[in-house]
Amino acid sequence: MLYCAEYQSPVGEMYMLGDGRSLTELDFVEVEGKRLTVGPEVKFDAALPVFDSVRRWLDGYFQGSCPDFMPPLFLSGTPFQRVVWDILSRIPYGTTVSYGDIAAEVANRLGKKRMSAQAVGGAVGHNPIAIIVPCHRVVGSDGSLTGYAGGLWRKKYLLELEGKR
Predict the structure, then answer these.
(1) In terms of domains, do 101 and 150 share one?
(2) What is the mean pLDDT of residues 65-79?
């Protein structure tokens, strides 16, 4: 069974999905005109400790501080995606990296000479846990704001919240 709860953020309503022990998805309810739709196997408004932990993390984050704990997460994806998401999770608060930087790190971890920044972009775009796994901290090679499923205005807000101009 999956469980779902909502979170009201300063940049829009978000949903949390979890398996009862870990957060499996965190995203905005409305992204580019789409609304979350789930089947009957999902229990809504679940009062679970994992969701309480995620709320505390997000509350601290949106108050402008870097939370000093990580809620329990479970990211399901391909081995390549999981490597990219692990790298994302290590981007420090208030900093940005480029898709090329991540591609170089992925290549290094996988023992390859190089890795496609476009492939990395695909994995970043499929990150199931917004904000906590900070895909908003990934920018173009020239520092430009590119590719954020939640909308570039949200990416800009999140980076400015972290003190990045």
Answers:
(1) yes
(2) 95
